Amino acid sequence: MDVHPGISHVFQTAAFRFGHSLIPPGIYRRDEKCNFKATVKGDPAIRLCSNWWDSNMVMTYSTLEEMLMGMASQLAEKEDAVLCSDIRDKLFGPNEFSRRDLGALNIMRGRDNGLADYNTVRASFNLKKLKSWNDLEAINPSLFKEAHGKELLKRLKRSYRNSIDNIDLYIGGMLESHGGPGPLFTSIILDQFTRVRDADRFWFENTENGMFTPQEIAAIRKITLWDIIVNATDIGSDAIQKNVFFFNSTTDPCPQPVQLNASMMMPCSYLKGFDYFEVRIGKISVKNYPR
């Protein structure tokens, strides 16, 4: 059977950007004894909006191990249709000469790629087309039942000229999200990963290529991200939980101090740029060179 492994536009441009809703405004750091580390400015975490593209500064005061252990303890943002402020209107931080909005970028990217509208893509994945705004409310009732949800619905109608057939794919898919991707994004992501797996004749679970025995396949399946982190870093085996994607506060080590909020950290830095002629190479100052 011929299976196309190519990455679909609807996957790369809309559905797999669902994960942006999980990003917190900063990153906790800690050691193996559960001591969480503040920044040099006294913030409880490294704030994203002030540190985009500044890995040299971040790693001067941090280690990879501290960041991995901190993230293992830190809870992500809710899986919903909301993006935190550090990526919504402060992307990509002080080293960019214009602050951008990741949500707006995702919408524009879909239009630049010529994606079909939300309802059309639903139909292409054998999902029922929505006929009214009430149908959209029915998919994710918890989002629209509160006061802010009713205001959101009003703005959607105004932005899309009261036509549900005008909704951008990214917006429609995100509005379905409640504790995980909604029906459409789930279908798109499942289709993509299934095709990538089934089209790869060297996939480790493909018994017909003769690469691995059933026993070896079973052993590979047991390898987790915990195994990789513990074997590739100096983090002790008991310093992070076995399933690093989930945290159980009653059994796992080092729960986070509190769910991180932007208000707990210093305001984002102002815009700035690099002076490339200030760079020093050895004892020679590039700034002294004629321009």
UniProtKB/TrEMBL annotation:
What keywords are annotated for this sequence in UniProt? Answer: Heme, Iron, Metal-binding, Oxidoreductase, Peroxidase
Q: Which InterPro entries match?
A: Haem_peroxidase_animal, Haem_peroxidase_sf, Haem_peroxidase_sf_animal
> Which domain of life does the UniProt lineage start with?
Eukaryota
- Tell me the Pfam families matching this sequence: An_peroxidase
Where does this protein hold heme b?
H20
Q: Which SUPFAM superfamilies match?
A: Heme-dependent peroxidases (SSF48113)
GO BP terms in the entry: response to oxidative stress
Q: Which GO terms describe its molecular function?
A: heme binding; metal ion binding; peroxidase activity
User: Any coiled-coil ranges, and where?
Assistant: none
Keyword Magnesium belongs to the record: no
> Which PANTHER family does this chain map to?
NAD(P)H OXIDASE (H2O2-FORMING) (PTHR11475:SF144), OXIDASE/PEROXIDASE (PTHR11475)
| Name of this chain's protein | Dual oxidase
Species this protein is from: Cacopsylla melanoneura
